[in-house]
Amino acid sequence: MCTLFILLEIFFIIMLVFHVISMMTAVSLAKETFADPEYKTHSTSTYPTGALYALWREYWTVSFFYLLWPLGLWGNDNDYNYNKKDDLPPVLFIHGWTETRRNWRWIIKHLSLFITNRHFYTINLKPIDATLETYAPQIKAKIEEILDNSKQDKVVLVGHSMGGVLARDYVRTNGAEDVETIITLGSPHKGTTLGFLALGTAVKQMLPNCEYLNELAKDENIKQVDVHCIASVHDNLVVPFHNAWLDHSTNYMVTHYGHVSMMKAPHTFSILREILQQEKAVTADENTVEQV
């Protein structure tokens, strides 16, 4: 028991040090971004004070997710789709680097209370760290499986971080015929300058101006798809934060939440809910959400 407490203590200390360093680095690099009048909005004016709120939320969210990480290695989507209609294209949630399907549990649980005419699906990408090309066939196979079991001929792809980049790659590789909408949360579409801090194989493919992202931007034909990109101004891993936006998408901004904790932000949920309900898109909120 004593050993367990020591291990937990070490774990929380490592988590705290990592998040303090990443947030401080993000704040430092953000100064140049916010010097540009284009990004001096009411939302960015909360920087860097809002970063303290984001740091606290990010620290506890990530610690919780990774403590329960093993629980995400198994399970299925039956609970999400019990007694649900199949009237609209199903949704596939694609997790980010080193995450599991469990990271989507909060969002899916709450979306299920309001959306009862779509089926929700998740996927575990394996192995934990590989090239992005390794994950592409797994996503393709999952989409084929979903459509085989559905009355629909299209899917909606929702991706967090790396998952959003993989959603774009799917359309580039396989075409847009079977994709209705793509929604990304904190995805480094134009790379992240903090990628050099990670040792992961996939992360190295998400550095600014890296070969993979350049080829993706050059070859993709995503304009046939309805694309929505959500970025957090206090993202501690995607820096600058607006690299999570695409030029041809509908872009949204949330504040006071970090890279992973933005998945639990009420306004992220609000955006997802209204898009998936096929209602009018979320408009700007004077405190937390901005459509640009």
Summarize the structure.
This protein is α/β, with parallel strands linked by helices.
For CATH, the homologous superfamily is named as Alpha/Beta hydrolase fold, catalytic domain
Annotation, overall tally of beta strands: 7
**CATH fold annotation:** Rossmann fold
- Summing up helix and strand content along with how strands pair, one would put the structural category as alpha/beta
Mean pLDDT: 85
Number of helices: 9
The best one-word shape is: globular
Which second-level CATH architecture applies?
A: 3-Layer(aba) Sandwich
Strands of the largest sheet, in order across it? Answer: 2-1-3-4-5-6-7
The helix/strand order is HHHEHEHEHEHHEEHE
How many angstroms does the end-to-end distance come to? 52 Å
* Low-confidence segments: 279-292
Count of the domains: 1
- DSSP strand content: 5-15%
CATH class: Alpha Beta
Main beta sheet strand tally, sense and closure: 7 strands, mixed
What portion of residues is helical? 40-55%
How many whole angstroms does the radius of gyration measure? 18 Å
